[in-house]
Amino acid sequence: MKIDMHCHLDLYQNPFEVAKECDDKGIYLLSVTTTPKAWEGTKLLAHGSSRIRTALGLHPQLAHHRAHEIELFDALLPEAKYIGEIGLDGGTNFKKHWDIQLKVFRHILKSSHNSGGRIMSIHSIKSASEVLDELKSIDGIPLLHWFTGTQGQLKRAINMGCWFTVGPAMLNTKKGQALVSMMPKDRILTETDGPFAKFNRKSLMPWDSDIATKQLSELWHIPVALVHEQLEMNLKHLVKLNH
Ligand code: MN
Question: What is the whole-number distance in angstroms between the Cα of residue 171 and the centre of ligand 1?
């Protein structure tokens, strides 16, 4: 089972071809969006595929331009089973928009909580503590995507019940490896974050989540087949939790 739990399918140059290839290759894919306006169009990419799920999102790096789309977010929420990409970004370029990011993130979490909770793919660059603060007493399952916080923040996330999606770029760094080795094996899924994330200077494709599977096999000292088994069990468990 090939799994890419955080991919920007709609942002590839040829998204319909990529979606078709995902279907041919049997990839289970969470197709995240960056604005509520992208939801309808991105959902079309999943049309005819039984393994692509579309997530309704509002990316923290766009919050200052797209805060007004929060109404559209709420209108679409009843039909969205998955949420993402959402979160906070405390990096140098986005810290200046912190207040509006926080307002948007809080609104989304509250709406999602009030409508029964969702699986949520969450961005937490330079904001892990603040993201975890906001997740307190929110129903749903947070998937912390490409977690780059400290080991202490990671421990807190684990204790709060968070899940983690990890990709080739993260697993290629010593820091990323140290974090992933601390994560519970039964709460990890693979991702690519393509086409944004790169590996060997090339934009990652959804099927490159295979690279992460190999990296996990090295990190966990178990054969690739057992990693696949573990990830498959995890995905089934996660989907069950969502019902
Ligand atoms: Mn992303």
Answer: 16
